[in-house]
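Anyone else keep sequences and structure tokens together like this?

Example one:
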Amino acid sequence: MRKQQTLIKSTYFSGIGLHSGKPTSIALHPAPPNTGVIFVKQMGDEMVSCPATIQYLEQTDHCTTLQSTNFKIQTVEHILSALAGFEIDNAYVEVQGDEIPAADGSAAPFVEIIEECGITPQEAPRNYIKIVQPIHVEGEQRSITVLPSALPRISYFIDFPHPLIQQQDYQHSCTPQEFSKNIAAARTFAFRQEVEFLWARGLGLGGSLYNTVVFSESGLVNEEKLRFHDECVRHKIMDLIGDLSLLGSPVIGHFEANRAGHLLHTQLVQAILDNPDKWILLNAGTTNKSSILNGTAATTANTHCLHELQPAFHSV
């Protein structure tokens, strides 16, 4: 039986927000068993929280944003992808600001600080959602399906009318080793003609050639070459892994994504919760389906531990 995992120690990372363009920082902290991943923020004398579950999804416009009663946190998909990719079940993500740092546009810097912290097993079973019947969502010639499978897998296909992208597909076996080697370093990408459009909407204000792969009409604006010939589809897989973690439990199934994105990713998460007859729980311990469906499988059990958390930041 697989055990839950958390970080051995706390760590810190700072930068600017991809969309806000403002300075922002995070600190990763170990968390007790059955906590899940919780975003926390010091507000006055109080530590407030926003669990990383679909129940707190606020919007998916070019990024994934969560919002609780107390605060909103933008662009969470890369840090969530790094935690899920390394099978970390329990962690507090303390934030200073309203957005996760963009870093280099990939999950690789977050992987580095996780590896520096180290990972430790905990005395609680890791429960899995095992798909037993297909679940499918679609819209505007885009779709994503999860099928029964002996092991977690992702097949992703994209199609962009650009000579450096065109049709790309990638098959990912969901293990920490494969994530670190083949997925984590894939960067956010955009097209030059989209940049001004994003700026006009108040998005992408922190975007640069350091944290975004920018394609011109026929080539690449960045001086740095692509890290993979199919970097774009690998980044889509990284986003999907982060968005799927909003289920609160890992999934054993085969995900087949066709031109999908954050909106369809999160719609599939909700569809899984809406179809409890199409999956079973494995290694559940005291966890049951109702707690997962209500978003309480992990987070409510240990929000009371927040007062014991030693914050890295202090409100001004």
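And example two:
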Amino acid sequence: MQRARRTPEPEAPKPQGHAAKERARKSDPDDGALDWADVPAAVLCAFCGKPDCSGCIAVDEPTNASGVVAIVPWERAGLGWVTRLWATARLATLSHRELFASLPEGSARSAFEFALLSELVSAFGVALGVGGALALVPDFVNTALHDAVVRQVLLRVIAWGVPGLAALMILLHALHGLLVDRAAVAAGSKKRGRGLRFGLYACGWDLVTLPLGLLVVAVTEGLSTTKRAAGLAVSIPSQATRAYLTGVHALTPERAKKAAGRANAQTGVGALVLLALVTALLALVMR
């Protein structure tokens, strides 16, 4: 007697948006960072945020192309601000594709508060680094302590330089985020952009990849992670931007690459203009 051949079961269809999600994730996720980013697979409603919601009728599209709702650690209640700040900055840097490809809608104020703290800490770290380097110069410390003019100049540089650098970086990141949304629309996106939040949360890159952040990473996670974070300082803007464009705006990789290039070029021009204005302002203040 011949046994009847078992017909293989057809593969289950992949969920909608699966391809877009895979295009955005070209590297293995950082499990340690993703522990902070509660990412339930289509559990929370994209509109009201309730887990038991049967579907708000006001929503006519998913939160992003992957259909996944990500919760930014900074916006989680019940944690200290230092923990939320570092967790979000680390996630935005070491797992930037995963975070920005599924960046949820939310308050611009929360994102701005994160950006402000990130850039102030980053700028203060730069000031400490410069101060430490100057301290190695022979007789500099003695001159700064006994020369009133030098001491006054140093105090002015710190008083205006730290908040000024922070403000400049926030403006650049916010401008970049808005230009990314504009480039996405020009590339054919019909999705609702979150460019301002993208730009403000991108300030976490500076916190992790500048000296103070790298020191924290070295102490807490070792040299291999520190080397990886330092290497991302140059490449992360393009990578995160393309992830945001493919994940949130549902652009193809080719269109996302062109849109990212356009936005980055426009941001570069804006950076030169802002830098010229800041330089002129500082020249007036230091007189």
